[in-house]
Amino acid sequence: MNSKFSCKKSRSFGGFLITVSLFITLVAFGLPVILKDTFDLAAFIVSSLFVLITTGLFLWLWFGTYYIIDNEILIAKFGPLTWKVPINEISFIRLNQETIGGTWKLTLSWKCIELKYKKSRSIFISPNNQSVFIDRLVKINPQIEIKQK
């Protein structure tokens, strides 16, 4: 059974990524102009590459964050990063978590769920259809305990 779940995306989180991208662009191109520094071709190329890479990474995160339940493995993709969690090692799922602070948060939403696995490890994710996602995990591992915040 192979199921793909899209990531819940908060508009304010997207706004945050856009704001950071615009700030980086402003700093990369505007600062030399403000400081009346000579802005030669090499500086322009380096600034352009930095802006393109950063914006590309943010776009990759926005469009490339999803979760796959592949047989007995949960695969969490967060842009270029991938986590593989054996579903039989998930001990509990904590609902209604906030994304600020803590450990790895492979989410684009401020609200998420925490999956605790391998005794002391955890990741935070935000599948779009949370109830179906959790049902599929529990179907594979009925030992998973569901906890509220």
Automatic annotation (TrEMBL):
Residues of the Uncharacterized protein YyaB-like PH domain: 65-141
UniProt xrefs under Pfam families: bPH_4 (PF06713)
Superkingdom assignment: Bacteria
InterPro entries on file: PH_YyaB-like
Segments passing through the bilayer: 12-35, 41-69
UniProt KW keywords: Membrane, Transmembrane, Transmembrane helix
Keyword Transmembrane helix in record: yes
Gene Ontology terms: biological process: bacteriocin immunity
Protein name per UniProt: Uncharacterized protein YyaB-like PH domain-containing protein
Native source organism of the sequence: Maribellus comscasis
Lineage, top ranks: Bacteria, Pseudomonadati, Bacteroidota, Bacteroidia, Marinilabiliales
